[in-house]
Records
---
Amino acid sequence: MTLIARISKNVVQELKTQAEQSAPDVSNPTGDLFIMKSAPLAGIRLKVPLEAYLANIPRRPDIVPTDDELFAIVVNSEVSLRDGKTFIDGQEVDLLPKL
């Protein structure tokens, strides 16, 4: 298992616990974005097919699909929200585009 895959798996486990205890940080018809409380990483609970989602987001090595049923996407970089916008490592990225 690669380092990215191991990080993603650990992130998913923590995000599942967080999702049981709190609402998503951002939610729309595309999915729910959860930013981890213990680290600036994030997970996306998709409401659309994975293939459609991946076709409509920027290609980045830190946006990683998983084989998890609940969190299909993990972002293995610093994720933050400012003024209603989502940022990865300080760069604005639309993680939940309207499809």
---
Amino acid sequence: MVSVRGDCCGFGACIGGGLILSSKKTAKEGSGVIKIGAIVPLTSPIVGDWLNSGIDLAVDEINAKGGVSGKMIQVVYEDSMMDSKTAVTAFKKLTEIDNVDVIISANSQVAVPLKPLVEEKKIPMISALVAAPGFSVGNDYVFRYHPSGDGEASMMLEYAQKELKINEVSIVYENNEYGVSVFNAMKKDFENKGGKIISAEAINPDGKDVRTSLLKIAEKSPQAVYFVGNSNGYIESMKQFKQLKINAVCLTAANIISVKPIESAEGCYFTNPEFAVDSKNETTKLFVSAYSKKYGKDPIYVNAEAYDMVYLIAEAVKTKGIKNIKDGLLGIGGFDATMGTISFDKNGDALLPQRVGQVVNGKFVFNK
């Protein structure tokens, strides 16, 4: 694999130092390289190596087969630290110094602030783990490879109404751009379907004082509590919900994978992209086998999202060329990926199938 890990210490200060090359091939190969700038959390205790492990595996595979139209893929990594200011600095370095051809990013709090910069630079960005509603709307260079948070909530609450006979719900959401936007969208959607939001509590993303909010929720005696978030506040509220033994059904989305140990979320229902290690899809089987062999463990859907994004970029370069990755991505239809047969809608959102699961005996169990 050709990869570079950068240290974006104040942008200009990182030139000439803090770079670790994992290959003798460098950016000076010019037109012989497809340069991907990856702004992902490399040191996050929540996310860990979920993104870079999938990216690295895909790059290894593609380069081992001769690259894309004879061009090797090189990844320049920057640690987003799941922080917007850090991400903006990283973006400027990657586009103004490293001259990357495309950006991979992850997490709403990182990717959303990059949108105006992406449009200004006219460089395509494809993002995983970004559930902010409307993320891809109104920007031709922004792509999403993850379900939208309002779509996740809509599916979960519809399931709760029809299958669990739940019609009164309280919501616990992180008080950040992602949490607030999902809350507003899901509240409107659920009420339009005849449901009732009987209370809502905004919590600190840092996880402080969530117990007080949960006790307020418990006083309202909801049938269910839906949790929205992507930071420590979300994780702590899920854990303390279980510890307080609140008599309500737990509902949430794919971020449940960040709750550890997962037994802390025992019984909780959630939505998840339709990725399964026992899938019959040939592409998925090959990915699961290769990932397990390389890393000694089964992949989760986030690894698959990262892996697929590299292959989607490669397909875009193959069909439209390195200078037209945006058009190449928009033109993708019926692409066989680990997450299913993939196309992008007019806004740049990948049309990813989802499913409902539940934590049972410390394991993720999915509906057939």
---
Amino acid sequence: MNKKFNNLMITMKFNQYTLCFIFVCILFYIPCSAESLPNADKHKKYSKQIQTEILKIVKKHALFYHPINNKQNIKSYIKSLDSFSDYLSADEYSFFKSSQKKKYVGVGLQLEKNSSGQMICFPFTGGPAKLAGIKSGDILISINNTNIQNKSVFEIGLLSKGIVGTYVTFSIVTKDGFEKKIRIKRAELSSSSIYLKKFDNLSAIEIRSFTLSTRAELKNAFLDLKKQSLVIIDLRNNPGGDMYAAIDCAMLLLSKHKTIVTVKSKDSTETFKSTITGMKKKCEIFIWQNDYTASAAELFIAALTQNQRAHSIGKKSFGKGTRQEVFELSDGSALFLTTAYILTPSGMKYHSVGLEPDFFLNSKETKTKDYVAFQKKIITRKMSIQEKKIPVKLPKIRKDNLSNINKVNTYIICIDQWFNSENAARIFSERIVQSDQNITNVFFQQNQIEGKILYMPCLGPFTNKTTAENSKKKLSKKLQNQLKIIHLTKLHGP
């Protein structure tokens, strides 16, 4: 299955200030006080003013910009930019805002769209959808016999509306390819994002999604577990949530000045660092992840693991690493727009690539009991990061000026990206080296920019141009958007 999330990590702009939303994707709920909900206006005619507003915003902010053509209306144009961008009518947007309540009526299900347009289900533990038989990874086909193909998550949210005690029928296709109809009873639910669990004698904090309340809930959870020397943070099937909430949660567990994440738009780069001293609890932290751990959850994992505050266990994560912003328009409608890539502390893009865990779990081991057994094995053996399930021999990395390896007919590949620390460059380099066994060494080119020493990883050397070109091609294809540009440099002798 092609897995590219439409989980929106958003910043919402109202006049001159910023507001972060709890959830972006509709969770199949309506506010408890709502008497009725609007129908989506499918064939709206857009005023010239609104069209001008939209096109101006898109041209200025869209990460994947292309001009509109004469055959497209506004909604189809926005959707054509990338699979994560969307336009909401005033009614749809009003419904979206009203649905961000502490309590809601629904089935306890978060929905995400992949790049193929399929809607992937993520039921909450203990919720009506989960109890009825919906599983993470199931593909939604219809609601009450209405096909949801080509509909946005917001339009689908409207289809699922209802009141407490009534039923809604979801048609889904399971991961095994079987089509099912599942009848789910709507219930009043709370939006708590964290749950404490016990697996034998292991304490675990399950984070379902990152919301505005998650930081406070996470702090209380750690206080409840203050006597524990080891704590598990379970992020399996966590589709993300609010980017800024994930940053706040990471800050809670990191020391001051640690890099958490970098947000790179087409015009600017902003790095978020910890501005406070986190909790002084010295427990060891393990994070559980799987192939449905995505977006803000991946941001949180990278922040903790690359700052050596936690180890990760499980499967390679989903790979959703772009940010979406919400722009409110003058007529009450809104534009959801992809505006930036999300980079890990080491400077790596994980979008469409995912994050590999420190400890790999066998592909057939997917149940909680498998994670528990593997966790205990790690504790018993006191495994280190180097004792991965799939060990990789990394070449020696040394810091050099490129002039030190100047030789006739020597070729190297330089990554067109500067890092603000040797350690960040090292982490990035080691991940790249794993992709090509022909690389025998890594060199760091140094440069002083605005008074700061920066590092650029260069790979090689290669003794002939053909080998270097082949490695360059292989790296470009395999790493895809982890690298901005890979350029080949020939070093001539004196």
---
Amino acid sequence: MTASPPSGPHLPQLFDSSEANGPSARSAATVAALVASSLLAAAVGVGWFVRVPAVVHSTGLLEQGRVRAVRAPEAGVVSTVFVSPGDTVTVGAPVAQIDTTELHAVIDGLRGQLEASEAQVQQSVASAPIGRRIQEERVAWSQAQLLAARAALLDRMVGHDLGTDIDSLLAAYRPGQHIAIDGAVSGVRSAEAWHRLELTQVAGSDLAAYDVVRARSLRASLRSQIAALQNRLSLFTLRAPVDGIVVTEELDRLLGAPLPQGGIFAELAELGGWQVRLRIPDRDMRRLHVGDSVVITADDSPVRERQQMVGVLGYLGKAPSLSGSTSTGPRFEAIARLSTSEADRWPLGGLRHGLSVRAEVVTKKDRLIWVFLESLGE
């Protein structure tokens, strides 16, 4: 038997399955793709050309006044720490001492050389007149010996009828002509040589004055070196650059630690004024600008509206690291300055150094597409 079609009312067939792959279906798909592409292009265009304010969230610490670093003018090992975290110091007050044992050893060595130089100068000055007098007497004695030798030669010359011209005889005489005259001529020439030697000694004693000058010059040089090193000693005492509060924790850990020249030993918060130091992730640094507004709220604020201030970014840069620090936190920081009027809005007694705060930095307008993509990354 053949099945009969169902009786009763039924809906008409509106779509013929045989036309699913027909030209009309392909046209509809093409139109849909074009519409989607147009919408995507329009969205990208809007995202590129439209700029909207962006907000960067961060956390930080409240600080009293600007923070100034206590740096080491000279490299060395920290031998003494004079302050503790939270101490209030005045400008110029000693904060720490760098070991000066080696420098003192150098100064002591120079002082020893100076003492020897001064003794040499005193000896030279005191002995110069005596030496000069002795040389003069030796010259006089040698001159007397020469006169005696010439007199003996003259006596021999007269006794042998050789005349009285001693100088002519000495110039022309050849040894071996007469034994008596040989001895007398030899005595004269020996006395002349001795007399010349004594005159040379007198000239040499005149050079001793130059030795005194040289010793005095050396003494002045040593004194200058000692004075320079003593002035340098003052640089080994680290002093507070401003009136402020010591904000660096665990200073005792730096005792005995090496500190490079220019290295940061501690930080002081200047008295007066308030600011917030924020640690900024690397990805957000591009979005921040000096002058951006910052809304600051205390972490433990029970009433947000009452404990909220608005500051302005005044600094952007790399976060400093203290000597001996092994921190692996954000590499960048921002500092928001707070006006006196904003600080006065905070409840009495609520502001304190080191208070943890939250911050929302309202940056300058950025392209909508970057804000959207960065939000997806977060």
